[in-house]
User: Fold CoA ester lyase from Ensifer oleiphilus.
Amino acid sequence: MTMRSLLYVPGSSPRFLEKAHERGADAVIIDLEDAVAANEKDAARAALARSVPMVGRAGATVIVRINTHDEPTMLADASAACQAGAQALYIPKVSSPDILHRLDAHLRPLEDAGNRPPMRFAPLIEDTEGLLNATPIAAGPRVFAISVGGEDLATAMGAQPTPEVLRLPKLMVHYAAKAAGILSFGLLRSTADYADRQALAAAVAEAKDFGFDGATCIHPSVVPLLNGGFSPSPEELDRARRLIDAADQADQAGIGAFTFEGKFVDRPIVTRARALLARSPR
Assistant:
């Protein structure tokens, strides 16, 4: 699965929803939580029947970020997203796998009744309990990706949301994702200034080097940068193909480790090259 860019769109903003499919994001997150005022949440939820197919008409994966501050609202948001045809839920403030199991049980009869595929879950880790439970959360039901909500996590810790403060928590959640074999979203360094292309490009390049799969954004101008930054470059793809050809020839000759373009190559390097080709957009 390739999901390099995930664009947040307020669920209460028809103007942004109508344009979301034109932005080129791999996924669109219709936000019912932080981006929607309390007195507009019911209307935004009711509008999902129209907004979900609208934002997905160019082929993007449609995700709905639900509210989790109380059980009735959470289940109502999840039900509406399911019935509207969203593929996944972004679930904020996940402190343990319990919430995932409750949502799983709630959605099963709705999915059966609608004869639709199961929804997938992307938990957001936003407090210290969730941080320490990242491994079981990542292995929870329906989970395909996991991420850190940096502002909320810093607030929960009584800390400032600086890159230095959030680096270790983000890596802890990232390692939990990789151990579970799911996607990991985020940047180790983030910037509030989306016009600072150089800083954003550096942050994306660093995240890619660490093995992150993609990142969310709130401004459509960032989408092309994420798509490009989290994709293998033509040079990387070409080198991977040549390396695999050389590895195949070495296998046929009964050779294990070998030298490729002046560098020692063993099995992990070949495996990494094959993985790079497997996840490149076709």
The mean pLDDT is 94.
